[in-house]
Structure formats: C-alpha cells, structure tokens
Amino acid sequence: MTVLVTGANGLVGSCVVGRLDAAGEKVVAVGRGRRRELPSRVEYVELDLSGASALRELIASTGPRAVVHCAAMTDVDACENDPVQAWTVNVGATEQAALGCRDAGTRLVALSTDYVFDGRGGPYSEDDAPQPRGVYARTKYVAEQAALLLAPDCAVARVAVVYSGRRGAKRTFASVAAEQLAAGREVRAFHDQVVSPTLADNAAQMVIGVLRSGERGIWHCAGASIVSRVEFCRALARKLRVEERLVIPVAMASAKLAGPRPARSALVVEKIRGLLGRAVPLELDAALDRFLAERAA
User: Fold this and answer.
1) Nearest-angstrom CA–CA distance, 21 and 190
2) Which of 44, 115, 136, 163 is catalytic?
C-alpha cells in the first residue's frame, strides 16, 4: 500500500520520503518544481497545490493508505505580503488533502507549526489554546482545523524551527549560521526569541511514528531542547570549535520583519515522548551532531 507525501522537496517532506522508502514502503512523492534529492525508485508527481481540486483528485487516483501533508507556504514575510496565496496553499491544499482522505477512507497526518501560538506564554503543550498572529500563523491554524474537522482519521504534527544539513536541502537559519561560523564570520541571532529547534530528519521520525501509531489529534513533533536563537548559535559554535564571541545577540525588533514572530513559542514534547520513547525527540547536543554529520556527508 502506498503513502502519498506532499511537500516532498521540502525539509521535512524529503526526510519522510527517505525514511519510508528505506523501510520498504511504496511512496508517491508530490512536490513543486523539479524532483530534488529523493530516492530514485520513488514515484514523483509535480503538482501545483493552488489548483482547486488537484490534490484531492491525485489522492483518489492513487488510493494511498495514508497521506502525509507536509506542503505549505512557510515564508512568514511572503505570507504577510500575499495573504491570498498563503490562504490558497496553507488552507486550501490542506482542505483538499482532508477531503481526499475522507473520500478514500485514508489516514491523514498534516504538519503544522509552533507559530500557531502568540509566544507570550510558552513553552506550550498540545492542550494550550492557539492564538496565532500574522498571516502565516493564522492560515496554519485554520489548516489544522480543516484537517481535524474534515478527515475522520487525522493527526496534526506541529514542528518548530526546522533545519537540515542534508545535501540539496533548503537553506535555513542553522545552515547559514554554520557556514558563517565555519568561515570565522559573525552571526547575528535573536536573543529574545525562545524556540524548540528541530532537525528535519528527527521531525520526520516523529511524524512517521505518529502515522504508524494510528493515534489522532495534535502532537508536538519538535526538538527536546528549549533555547534562544543566540543559545542555539553558541552551541553550534562550540561544536565547530570556533569562538562564541562570533555570535552577536540582536533584538527581533531590530530586524523590522514584515510578519510577526512569537517570542516564546517553544513546544512541550512529553506527549510524543510517551508515544515513541523519551530519547526520540532529540536534545540539541545530539541534534547538532547529526546536523554536522549531514553537512559532512
């Protein structure tokens, strides 16, 4: 039986595809644009998720046993500047995925984000009420509701501040910081944003665990350590054996970003630990070791 994975060219989606393929699962990988670093035997379908019913029709034609919906418009500032496109991709495509799964009797795991919280009271558990700020956060929260309301067999997996060192992966704050620090250059990082940085492959491991468990509802699939972006970069500097003074603390307000960012949006991961084991959500030290090993591969 097939698992259909959307956002297959993305950070988490590509890792989900890779892990499922390595486990011998048949995978249909759905992505935007050309095929990127995916296993050669995986079927790839290029699909524009802004189409009114394209994803729903693909689910109907492939008949998967499960759909892992990773695709999203994740650029916070781009969402703020184009709310129509953000709604179309983040809400509309999730609605299509949920309706397609409902029609086919298929299980759905839909990815979401720590940004559904306003950041005033974190860290947050699955029982805390979201209060999204900004277009990205609001569309992702509505997408959660669409998935949970429309797909009878559904789990929502929230991830946070995802990064990867894999070849061909999208550049992120972590990968840019690693490049800068390794070259002996300064890195500016927010001292007033506290998050749960999540290695993409570790997020994929947790998402697949939720998928296979058959559990429903909301799950926080994030890294186990709660740190500021400055603390993250200093830990990375220590791993790279460079001076921590290269990390320059700055305030979020100084960046004058178009879209709001929550200040304290870290996620509590006790629920996923109870399902998959305490060691599964990686602490930062172990996650950075894997991140640097990915970069060196």
Assistant:
1) 37
2) 136
Which pLDDT belongs to residue 108?
98
Instruction: Compute the half-sphere exposure of residue 218: CA atoms within 13 Å on the CB side of its CA.
Output: 24
Domain-embedded: residue 179: no
Whether 270 contacts 125, CB under 8 Å: yes
Closest alpha carbon to 93 in 64, 79, 78, 73? 73
Measure the CA–CA gap between 275 and 258, rounded to whole angstroms.
38
Is 107 part of any domain? yes
CATH code of the domain covering residue 34: 3.40.50.720
**pTM, 2 dp:** 0.96
| Angle, helices 173-182/229-240, rounded to nearest 10 degrees | 40
Strand ranges (DSSP E) for 178-286?
A: 187-190, 194-195, 198-199, 217-220, 227-228, 247-250
pLDDT digits (tens, 9 = 90+) for 186-234: 999 999 999 999 999 999 999 999 999 999 999 999 999 999 999 999 9
What DSSP string runs through 108-122?
EEEEEEGGGS-SSS-
Exposure on the CB side of residue 27, measured as CA atoms within 13 A: 29
User: Total domain count for the chain?
Assistant: 1
| Paired tokens of 63 | 């008949």
pLDDT band at 129 (very low <50, low <70, confident <90, very high): very high
- Annotation says 124 is catalytic: no
Q: Cα separation of 266 and 121, whole Å?
A: 9
Q: Is 237 inside a domain boundary? A: no
Which residue segment(s) compose the domain that 218 sits in? 2-160+200-223+267-281
Number of CB atoms found within 10 A of residue 55's CB? 28
Structural domain contains residue 235: no
Query: Which is nearest to 237 in space by CA: 200, 184, 190, 283?
Result: 184
